[in-house]
Design a protein that fits this description.
The protein is of the alpha/beta class. Helices cover 46% and strands 12% of the residues. The chain binds adenosine-5'-triphosphate (ATP) and magnesium ion.
């Protein structure tokens, strides 16, 4: 049996995660949101960066009256209440997500937030996830219709990006039958047990690829193996290379990452595109005005135009 869980509204929730530390995730989120808003779309930006929520600054908003914590702490009833209008089009729900970083955040609370995000009245909800790979952040990545993974060509950065992709897959498998999953109703205890044993081996997965898990589930419960196979096959991270200086270096990086992900994780990594370093983007980050506002025909706006036509 072949089954694929397709997003109900493709491209509605766009999450941006990936490498830590200054690869351009927040700048990209701010510009993508502004670009889409200027095309007449209703856009809500959501800052879930646990390390340093600064998306509001990149959108020209200095002080936040409310933050996402207010929703998690039940100070407000709905997410719409804490969305503020930014000067450049999108609405913004500001970060300050220490509660999402808290391991003791009740699961139902997170589920409620995921459901509230899905229900937001918007054409696009763009989430800046930061570079964290905690379960709470990965759960938002997995809930998105489009999941971007951002990196630069620096080895430390693309190793981070690979780790993000891997952790996302492990989390997807660990939560295969969770209430937030499209496979929830198909819960199978044997499959669940095999996945748990694979993920919780002493010493990690011991360098064994996901291929081993697929074989095992095929051997032990062949009629249910499609569940795991489909979960892996439909996990399609979208790689985005930022500040790419050299096209052959970028090409090599993409090929290498795609090969390793395929071999070790049985995952196909799609390529969303590569952006060159652009002094105007750096300047706009400094000026706290999204680049696409001052440079509607600039490099970044052109890139976003092509990317959105391809993906959304
Ligand atoms: N395409 C680009 N060209 C030139 N500079 C860029 C580009 N994209 C991002 N930058 C620079 O990188 C800096 C960091 O960007 P940003 O804050 O978006 O990174 P981040 O990935 O969100 O970092 P963090 O993980 O700390 O949240 C910006 O201040 C900007 O100067
Ligand atoms: Mg950031």
């Amino acid at each position: 049996m072949k089954m694929r869980i397709l997003p109900l509204e493709p491209g509605k929730i766009i999450a941006i995660g990936g490498a830590k530390g200054g690869v351009g995730k927040s700048i990209f989120a701010a510009n993508l949101g502004t670009f889409l808003a200027r095309k007449g779309k209703k856009v809500i930006l959501l800052d879930l960066d646990l390390g340093g929520a600064n998306l509001h600054l990149y959108m020209g908003v200095w002080a936040l009256k409310h933050r996402i914590n207010d929703f998690l702490d039940k100070k407000v009833a709905g997410l719409e209440e804490i969305a503020v209008q930014t000067p450049h089009g999108p609405l913004l729900i500001g970060g300050g997500s220490s509660r999402l970083g808290a391991p003791n955040l009740p699961f139902v609370r997170k589920l409620k937030l995921i459901r509230a995000v899905k229900k937001l009245a918007a054409d696009h909800v763009i989430i800046d996830l930061g570079g964290d790979t905690s379960f709470n952040i990965l759960d938002f990545y997995l809930a998105a219709d489009t999941g971007l993974v951002m990196t630069t060509c620096d080895p430390a950065s693309y190793l981070d990006a690979y780790t993000f992709i891997k952790m996302g897959l492990y989390r997807r498998l660990a939560r295969l039958f969770g209430p937030e999953s499209g496979w929830h109703k198909l819960k199978d205890d044997t499959v669940k047990g095999i996945i748990e044993d694979f993920l919780n081996q002493p010493g990690g997965t011991n360098g064994h690829g996901i291929g081993k898990l697929l074989k095992q589930v095929d051997l032990e419960t062949p009629s249910k193996a499609y569940l795991v196979k489909n979960a892996v096959e439909s996990y399609r991270p979208l790689l985005l290379v930022n500040m790419a200086q050299d096209s052959s270096e970028t090409k090599n990086l993409i090929i290498r990452l795609q090969k390793v992900a395929n071999k070790m994780l049985a995952v196909d990594v799609d390529f969303a595109g590569a952006l060159p370093p652009d002094s105007k983007v750096a300047q706009s980050a400094h000026d706290l005005v999204p680049d696409v506002v001052g440079n509607p025909n600039g490099v970044l706006a052109g890139f976003l135009n092509r990317m959105c036509r391809k993906l959304l």
